[in-house]
Amino acid sequence: MTKLTYVSRQVQSGYPQMKRAAAPERPYLSVGAVALTTALGVLVVAIAYTAGRHGHADSKVADYGYWAGQALIFVPASVRLLTRKGSTAAGTVGAITILTVAQYLCKLCYSPLSFTYSDELAHWLTAENILRTGTLFSPNYGLPISPQYPGLEEATTALVQISGLSLFAAGVIVAGVAHLLFVVALYLLFRNVGGSQRLAGVAVLFYATNPGLAYFDSLFAYQTLAIAFMGVVLVATWRLTEAKTSRDRTGWAVIAVVGIAATVVTHHVTSYLLTGTLALIAVAGLFAKNRRVAARAGALVLWAVIAIAAWIAFVAPSTISYLWPPFASVATGFRTLITGGLAGAPGASTAVSNPASHQLVAAAAVLILSCLVPIGWMQVRRRFRGQPWILAMAFGALTWYAILVIRFAASNGSELSGRAATFVYIPSAFIAAVGFRRFIDRVPRLRAIAFIGAALVGVLLMSIDGTVNSWPPSWERLPGPYQVGGVERSIGPEEIAVGNWLLAALGPGNRIAADFGNDPMVGTYGYQNPVLGDAFLYTAPTYSASVEQEVFQQQIHYALVDLRLTRLLPASGEYFALDPNSGTYTRPLPLVDMTKFNRIPGVARIFDSGDIVIYDLYGDN
Amino acid sequence: MRGSGKLIALTAGVAVCSLVATALRAPTPITAVLAFALLASLGYVWIEVILQGRAPALELVSVAVGLVLAIPVIAGVVLYEAGVPLTRMVWSGFFVGLTLIGDAVLAYRNRSVPADDYEDQQRAQRRHQRAVTQLDLRAPLEPVAEPTPRSAKRTTPPLKDVAKSWLRVPRWQAIACALAVLIAGSAVWIARAGAESQQYPGYTELWLSSKGHSTSVDNLGVSNQQGSTEKYKLVLLRKGHVSATWELTLAAGQTWQQTVQVIQPTEANLYLLPDLSRPYRYVDTEP
């Protein structure tokens, strides 16, 4: 019976049947060799980071070391996944796991002692609040939406409570496990939908070139856990749509329902995109005249919509106001694009433009995927027209071109398209892998080796794009000394001490103006409410009546002045959040502008650490 | 006792031990090991309850991990809504209780179901494995879905067979993987050591503040974070006249604090000795 089903699935797939059973070949690289070289890559990256911390952050040697380490991490796994010689399911899973763990370890080596990225700090604060109060939904001024989606923090604090580990250790474990789970779930989804472990391996490799995977999707942030749930839900949904017995249906339905509920509690955007994906699968089921798929996926869509609506209505009503600005920005960009063409579209707001070499690599990587996706579509049209899951992937891959448009159309298109890549790459990588398979099918074995070589170069190009145009940015690629207007390099012991003092001396929740580099510290370590759009306070040459009026309108109680802003240019190109002069600074801010508060009656100078001075703008009033 | 019966007993034992360790506030290494064992037990038990092993092993493991992560996410909200604080004992009791409930369900189910015939399934697994190892991009699709009407039975082999398959990994591969773990561990250790030994510029904090201006008493403080013992002179001026002075010797990391009355414009100047020519830090209530 097994054999009969096996053959029927081959016929269904449209691929030729295997003619003879060849003896297993030895792969070019065994899993052990891949693990060893990848571990060496992590070691080299860690050494480069250590060099950066000890005065060589701008050294070419440290930079080359970093890239050599990245190559050692990516090349062996790519060779293992792209070559068919000796390919096994266990080897493919092993290579994917090794690659994912290595990338996560690199991220850990960047911040090995505590969370340093602003998003991580915000979620750390939410988790701290849960541990401190034993309840959910305490305010978090650093990221007000975070307590309303407490899934990640619940899982982490539960682990802290039962294990006794520190919050940082538990957070690293939860984020790491979720990250690996997401990638393995993707592999399982691709393997189940495509019916081939090699196809799945190539698709995951393409996905791994996505700029967000190595960093944003492994942060201690709510999306990291939510996309893991999303992956599990999609695997469960596939099983549910294929289930023949009621026991199977019930079991996988329970997993899908629980997974959807957990996604809704954990992250807003992921839950919406999961619902959209399930709806797409249901529509594809109708399109392929497969009522079973349409009905079962449709039922899950209904559950997801109910769960989302209930969560927004009863727990997280501020979600709409939080998400509206980016959506409005995209909509405005599209409207401008339609009415005025590309020339009329607002430009990208990146403060520091990437070097030309990075942009060239990005263009080449975009071109490769953009070419492979249409080839994949042709394959789907020829061979998989009746398969709803593959049809859904094909429809979903259209979003690849949509984010390219967003990149140019929206005012913050680069950031939005970068964030969207996590989701857009799922169908796009699969369809691109189907297109890639087309070449493998067409070329003879000898030429296939040359083709695999070319593919390896292409994948490496895409992965370089994913690294250079992602996070950490070029100006913060290696950890190192403090820099103005940075992210992780703008939070050191002095800033953390100031944050602790803010909480101890002033109490929580005060409205405080600060620069871009200090905002995360103020909102997290300081438990304060940082003011966005406060550049006027620092760039005005005098504390005029209009400035004072704006201060009262925005209810700014304290002003944090970092005097290093008068000595250094901002690494990110912006001194302040929502900086109107972003990317245009050619010299540091004038000292006289920053110290003007010293002479103002009614303004008290309450804190001085040399670099950082804090003023009470209400003084003794 | 059959294999699954042993596992039920093992998971129940882990759960009880974990609860005892939490209640006795055992040292972190013990509670951490037991916590991970408890979560693994929870995942195993409930995946057995829900799916009864009717999927490939990798899928079962992945879904079990997802379930273990999802349970506290949903349970946290339910407990909060029920007014239960999310404390150490509550979480521990919840996980242990859930594991024991799952064990009870499995034990009840095992009593009513005859012993599984694993032989056919093992043969199917071996056939499947042969097909998978021969696959390449040009090869046909492997049977990843439940292939037969017998899919109601479990498709994962018992643990002893899984253990045997692990022993078949070539020795040099196992050594290479162990070496890789060692190297990766060294990398993290190097990164931690590098971060711990990173040098930052020293600084000294001076403050004069009160919470909410509700009183005329301010907190005056100095914190030495210069990295070495420093001598300071702190001068408090009221209306421009010296009101008090303090000679302070603070070790690295040491903090000095004093409450002062602030009923008129007050200023505090801190000098880093021996330089008395200009204040090293200064604060004031208002000019």
Compact description:
The complex is a heterodimer of chains A (621) and B (287). Chain A is mainly alpha-helical and 621 residues long. Chain A has helices spanning 2-13, 31-56, 60-82, 89-110, 118-133, 151-163, 167-194, 197-208, 222-242, 246-266, 268-287, 291-314, 319-344, 356-383, 388-396, 398-409, 413-442, 445-468, 493-506, 519-523, 535-539, 545-553, 591-594, and strands at residues 511-513, 529-531, 558-562, 604-608, 612-616.
Key attributes of the depicted protein:
heterodimer; A: 621 residues; mainly alpha; 5-stranded mixed sheet; 5 strands; 65% helix; disordered N terminus; B: 287 residues; alpha+beta; 4-stranded antiparallel sheet; 3-stranded antiparallel sheet; 7 strands
Describe the structure.
Chain A is mainly α and 621 residues long. Among the domains of chain A are: 150-220 and 318-474, no CATH class; 488-616, Rossmann fold. Chain A is 65% helix and 3% strand. A five-stranded mixed β-sheet of chain A has the order 2-1-3-5-4. In chain A, a hairpin with a 3-residue loop joins strand 4 (604-608) and strand 5 (612-616). The longest helix of chain A is centred in the C-terminal third of the chain and has 30 residues, at 413-442. Chain B has 287 residues and is an alpha+beta fold. Helices cover 51% and strands 18% of the residues of chain B. Chain B has seven helices and seven strands; from the N terminus they run αααααααβββββββ. In chain B, the strands form two sheets. Chain B has a four-stranded antiparallel β-sheet with strand order 4-3-6-7, with no helix packed on it. In chain B, strands 1-2-5 form a three-stranded antiparallel β-sheet, with no helix packed on it. In chain B, strand 1 and strand 2 (217-225) form a beta hairpin. Chain B is elongated, with a radius of gyration of 33 Å. Chain B starts with a helix and ends with a strand. Chains A and B meet through helix 1, helix 2, helix 4, helix 6 and helix 7 of A and helix 2, helix 3, helix 4, helix 5 and helix 7 of B. Strand 4 of chain A pairs antiparallel with strand 1 (203-209) of chain B.
